[in-house]
Amino acid sequence: MTETEGITYAAAGVDTEAGDKAVEMMKAAVAKTHGPEVLGGVGAFAGLFDASALLSYERPLLASSTDGVGTKIVIARALDVHDTIGQDLVAMVVDDIVVCGAKPLVMTDYIACGKVVPERIADIVRGIAEGCEMAGVALVGGETAEHPGVMEPDDYDVAGAAIGVVEASALLGPERVAAGDVVVAMASSGLHSNGYSLVRSVVRHAGWELSTTIPELGRTVGEELLEPTRIYSRLCVDLAASVPGLRAFSHVTGGGLAANLARVLPRGLAATVARDAWDLPAVFSVVQGAGAVPWNDLESTLNMGVGMVAVVAPDDADALIASSAAAGVPAWTLGTVVQDPALPVGPDVVRGAKGVDGGSVLLSGAYRA
Length: 369
Hints:
There is one protein chain. This protein is α+β, with helices and mostly antiparallel strands. It contains eleven helices and 15 strands. The chain has helices at 16-31, 72-79, 85-97, 118-135, 196-206, 221-225, 233-242, 256-262, 282-291, 295-299, 317-326, and strands at residues 38-39, 48-49, 60-68, 103-113, 138-146, 156-167, 182-187, 213-214, 219-220, 246-251, 269-274, 306-312, 331-339, 349-351, 360-364. It has a seven-stranded mixed β-sheet, with helices on both faces. Strands 3-6-4-5 form a four-stranded mixed β-sheet, with helices on one face. Strands 1-2 form a two-stranded antiparallel sheet. α4 links the parallel β4 (103-113) and β5. The chain starts with 15 loop residues before the first helix and ends in a 5-residue tail after the last strand.
C-alpha cells in the first residue's frame, strides 16, 4: 500500500460485493417460503408479516425460540457440504416452539463467517429455506456477517430465531398432564444436532475418517453424521388440532430423552420409560461401542432414536400413533404417567432437569440393539 492509497473495507477483509452476490443467489429459495402474509421481499431492514389472522384468536400467545446447530457444523465444513445444515437449524428452533402447541409463523437466520463465499452462503440459506418450507414457516429475514481476523476464512456458524402463536386455551404443557396418561415416542432421523462434541471425540478415538464406511450403518461416517434433523412442526401442529387428549410435547435435544421429558411433567408425577420399548438405531450402539461410552452418559447426551415425545390421554394414544405413522414418523408407546415415588436421583431417575422444578422420569430395562 502506498502513502496515498489508504485502508479500504475490502483491504480490511470485508467483501460487500460478495455479500450482495450471496443475497442474489439465495433470493429465489427464500421467496418459496413466503405466502401472501409476507409483505415486501428480501433485503428490507425488517421482515413484515401480516398478523391479521391473529384477530380471530380470543387470547393469542406468542411463542419464541432461538438456537443453533452446535458442533455438527464442523462436519459440514469438513465435508464441504453446506445445504443440509439449514434443515438442522430450522428443526432445532421451530420444534421447540410447537412443544407448547404453537404454530410457527416466521423465522430469521444469522450467519457469521470469516469470509463470504457467495456459493457457500447461498447453499446454507437454501437449506434453511427448504427447512422452512417443510416446517410451514416463512423465512422473513436474515443477516450474514463477515468477521475477518476473528474467524478463519472457511469458518462459519449459524443461528436462528422464530415466533409462533397459540390460543391460550389450547396451550399444551405440564398443567394438562395427569396420572394414567400415555407417553408416546416419535422417532428421530438419527443423531439430530446434539451431542456432537461427544460423537466427534468417539470418531477421533476410533481413528475413523469421515469417508470411512461403517458396515452397521451402511454408509460413511460423514454421511451418517450429516443426516438432517427431523422437522416435526407440521405434524405436531396437526396433532394438537386433531387429538383432543393431547397433553404435552417434549422436544428431545441437549440432555437426552429423560431430562427433556421431565421438563413437561408437573411436580408429583413421573413418566415411566421402558428402554426395551424400541430397537436402538445402529448409530447409537456404534458410538457407544467405538468409544466405550457409559450407557447413562450416552442417554443423557443423545436422543437414542426418540426426537419428540407426546403425552396423551389413554383413549387417544392409538390415534396419535397412527397419525404420526401416516405422516411418515414411526411412533410407539414408551410408558405411562404415574404418581412420583420420590426415588433418589440417579442413572435411572431424572428429576427437575434443566432448571425446571417439574416431575420425574423413571427409566427401566436395557436397550435393544
